[in-house]
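Assemble and predict.
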Amino acid sequence: MLLIAVAALTLEATSLLQNYFTREGLKEEAQARASGQLEATRLQIVDATHQAEAAVRNTIWIARWCLNYLDSLPLVASRLVEDNPTVMGSTVALVPNYSRRRPLYAPYAYRLADTIAMKSLATQEYNYPTQPWFTRPLELDRGFWSEPYLDTGGGDIVMTTYSIPIKDLHGKQAAVLTADISLKWLAELIGSSQVYPNSLEVVVSRDGRVLISNPDGDITIKTLDEVAAIVDDTPSFARLVAEMRADHSGSIQIEDDGKLNHVFYAPVEQTGWSMAIVVPDDEIYGSMRRVRLIERLLQLLGLGMLIMILRITAKNQMKYHKMNEKKERMESELRIGRDIQMSMIPNTFPPFPERDEIDLAACLIPAKEVGGDLYDFFIRDNKLFFCIGDVSGKGVPASLVMAVTRSLFRSISAHEKSPQRIVTMMNEAMAEMNENNMFVTFFLGILDLETGHMRYCNAGHNPPLILSDRLRTLDVVPNLPLGVICQMAFQEQETDMLYNDTLLLYTDGLNEAVNSKDEEFTMERVEAAFQKHCSANEHLETMKEAVSSFVGNAPQSDDLTMLFIHYMNDTQPYASERHLILHNDIQQIPQLASFVETIAAEMKIEQNMAMGLNLALEEAVTNVILYAYPPGSDGLVDIEAIMRKGQLDFIITDSGVPFDPTQKPEVDITASLDERPIGGLGIHLVRQLMDSVSYRREDGKNILTLIKMI
Amino acid sequence: MEVNITKQSKEVVVCLIGRMDTPAAQEVAPQLEALEEDARGTIVLDCKDLTYISSSGLRIFLTLRKAAAEKGGKIIVRSINDEIRSVFMMTGFLNLFEIE
């Protein structure tokens, strides 16, 4: 009896003990499962929001540029939508009265069926300057995630808006750039990840909107009050809400409908949201009650639990393993990217030891990651072709764009000699394939080593400095960076480099180098270190020294690229050149007239001859404009004037159909009225007015040379 | 450029004002070609304020001249400046037009 009692007692005690341990084990298992799931979901949310933020951040840069070209802002917004499938809509909304021309301006691009439509948010009823997505990022001076909301306009999609302030080039808040992100992925995510058959996953936003996943993969939004109203255990619920709002993680028990629920919760960084998994107590312990009486089964369950735990652990480990593998692979990709980048740019200095008239020195020091800076140069036909560029963004994508930029520069300038045309062709190629909104600020110059004449074209890059008798900033039309807009008309400029002049091209990693006190190096310091005439290499070393002593131990924040070009041809330029590029549009003829008049004035040519030159040029160029290119297609005419002592040459080049105007028969000016044809006067006048007219076809181009003795 | 046409009883006076380059000639061509209807009588092309002319303008002059010859009318070119006179010389227009 006693034995039985002792046995029963022992059994009961064992059972209780086992029961206790099983319960604890199951609880631990449930916790492990829930927290594993929370972590996985959280990582996916963070990843998705990072993607959205990156899409917006990649666009900031170009939006900032377009502040000078307000008409292109709608394009920026629609481009952001077009290139990012999760972005449903986007606007660039100007700070009120930032632009005098447009005190309120907010072009909004949004998906409408399969297309992208535009509308204005600057309406009285909407009054965008009062909307939180507009005001909050400006107040916070950083990116801001709006509360999730149901967008009723576009088919009941749960959306959230990421908005970020845009500062202009003077650091003044100018606009807010936004992206409306569909949260459909979130619905799919929290709908698909149920840890237990009846568990429920919810996301709670900063202001207490609760997103609940439905079994059909959709999400509904409720306010906290609405949820609180249907939960019985009010104090526990309030505690849960407080915990979640405080961005804590943990678990809590809440009773509802007489049933106990376990709620596991964790914050989601960036968004200010918190998420939770609700698991009914039955789900965790229900099975245990049935096996309570059968200890063997209990053991089996323990075994099963062990397997479960092992599996979860294995799963977690695999996840970490995969993450490590990914990280390693990325690091090696970065290394390879950097190696490729470095091998692409000229790195032997001095590059042209056999030449006395030119000396170059350059460096490209990438920050931690591979960067998007580049410089390049080569000599063709006794002309130095050189460029510098800075790709927007960082990392492997930027370095790939840098590689593309460099090879476009090389391939196009192998047969083109006009900076404007090279830059235009590069822009067309890059804008066309630019699906990631990557842009390149770029400066290209062509220096005639014989004359010192330099033609250049800028695409949104920092203006170079030129150290001549004094230091000055090269006069540069900003234009837009490469890859922004197709059909962008770039403007070409020209100047003359004199003996002993040094040109400095740099990227903003120089003037924006930051020291440990977060101060920038600034252009003043750049200029101070670039005053004394010396060799290109000495210039480079001086500047490097100035930057590194300023920066000190602070980590390098951006790629640092500099290119010094020292011109040392002391023979007087024997000729100087002027250039004009026209489209095949007859309305551009007046531009040609003022071009010729400027040259005539410079060469002090008297009125009658000036008009003759004007007429000859107009006739020759009109011919090209009207007949070289098929009607309706865009083509260019390049006019080069070479001014020598006693002689003026005009070289007119086009890439149209082969046409030799000198082959046209002479007009018989003595013919009678009846016999006089209406046409043929143009080329006749050119022949009459110029001293020599010659034509050649070269590299698929018509080249007509007109020479006038002065 | 600008074209002012005054129709008088005996003649039509056409004042050409400004630069007659290719785009300008294209612009005023319809106005001047319509004068072919008046080519039976006398058309005076007053070039007092014409500062420049290119071949597209000369073509219009020649077309009018041919129409006048066909219809028995007359074209008078009045007060051309020295630069345009030299263009007329180079193109043989001095022999084709009556110049005042």
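Chain B is about 40% helix and 30% strand.
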